[in-house]
Design goal:
4 helices; alpha/beta; single chain; 7 strands
Length: 210
Amino acid sequence: APRCGRRRLAESSSQRKLLEQVGEIFRLETTPERIEVYDNSHIQGSEPYGCMIVAGPEGFQKNAYRKFKIKDPATVAGDDYAMMREVLTRRFQRALKEDPERDGGQWPDLVLLDGGQGQLTVGCEVLADLGLGDLPIAAIAKGPDRDAGRERIFLPGRPSFMLQPRDPALYFLQRLRDEAHRFAIGTHRAGRSKARLRSVLDEVDTARGG
């Protein structure tokens, strides 16, 4: 096989191994094919967004990424729990509408939230309210002082725990979380630029007497 083909094969087999480890860590019944990671982004409450990234055996599935502009006036920008509640509700209400039988491959094998016990509690409540209490869900919190390697993992009904600092599965989970964070920040910046452009155009309009 050509070198890049061999490398891709090696990458996909190591990816598969990592997904198997993730399945064991989160006590999933099967190796996950689709992991969805959720993160929120807001700076001083302006232009709040929630974001979802997707990863699986082929790596990051960028065409499946989604951004959710926070719409509900009751969701106070900056309230992470309320934002997470709105994003997960919208995502899974839509999934139920589009694929009520849950057999279309668009359903996650693991929902991973950026955060701790509070985010996990919100996520569990949303899924239970929608009749999706069987979907595996977990949260991953940054370490003290955002110290990589000190992340804590939260699962429903179990004490939180940490992985060994050099555990390849921990690196993998960090990559997932970092990608979600990167996408959320990028989405937020784009939203703010658009908002700034809108306000500049409004000012021009006002100056013209429009």
